[in-house]
Amino acid sequence: MLKIYSWNVNGIRAVVRKGALQEFIAKEQPDILCLQETKAKQGQAEVELPHYEEFWYSADKPGYSGTAIFSKVKPLHVINGFPKDIIKKFGVTGDTYGDPNLEGRVLAAEFDKFWLVTVYTPNSKRELTRLEMREKHWDPAFLAYCKQLEQAKPVIFCGDLNVAHTEDDLANPKDNHNTHGFTDAERAGFQSFVDAGFVDTFRLSHQGNGHYTWWTHWANARARNVGWRIDYFLVSESLKSKIQNAEIHPQVMGSDHCPISITLDA
After folding, report:
1. Exposed, middle or buried by CB within 10 Å (0-12, 13-18, 19+), for 54?
2. Dist. CA 126–CA 156, nearest whole Å
3. Distance between CA atoms of residues 184 and 226, nearest Å
């Protein structure tokens, strides 16, 4: 069995300073841990993890975005960002917020039996000013990249996809329809992953609402469980039968997101 976890830590230095990351790793003992929104470069967050190899893909801009993979299992190969052919084909270039290719958003690691990709999908912003980049460029490029990797091996991808897929994935769907994270365009982008054969692992064993991974800091939302499920593990169809468990861990504090996990029959 292989335990793989994903967590948007919203600043790894703060989570380390609180002791939350160390406590989480000591308790859960992930074989592989994928992180998003690290907001740091390797060496800026000192934490003793002797059993893990660390792979960081940080944003050029200090204190912003970034992904990382900590693994007890040594990957065969690690790739930072989209390949140039994907960037060119889908026009994934800069917008008024900068170049998403310089924001440390996609990190892929090849293992014996699968590719593992951690992703921090760009937020479309409250005024939806990044929605066009997201809809027309980023989401199609990310799907094409995962399908490209899948030609060699099954793919697992995880992370903060910054979208609630269905009305069951947020507490107040009617109030939030067409707000950022729940626009028709973003939901269609997620549905494209499903239509292309990727399986939302959590929904294999959990149905209905009330299962959330992110909560606003306002109005005591986390304690009241008024949240959104925007963090996911999706896998190639060929791995579906190997998923033994998929969980959300809302009891783990330290970030406005909580960790999620799958247990894989490896």
Report:
1. middle
2. 29
3. 21
> pLDDT per residue over 11-55, tens digit each?
999 999 999 999 999 999 999 999 999 999 999 987 888 899 999
Domain boundaries, the chain: 2-264
Fold of 2-264: Deoxyribonuclease I; Chain A (3.60.10)
For residue 86, the one-letter residue type is I
Calculate Rg over the CA atoms of the chain.
17
pTM: 0.97
The rounded distance, in Å, linking the Cα atoms of 96 and 113 is 39
Please give the positions annotated as active site: 120, 160
CA 262 from chain centre, in angstroms, equals 13
Q: Which residue has the tokens 């995962």?
A: 146
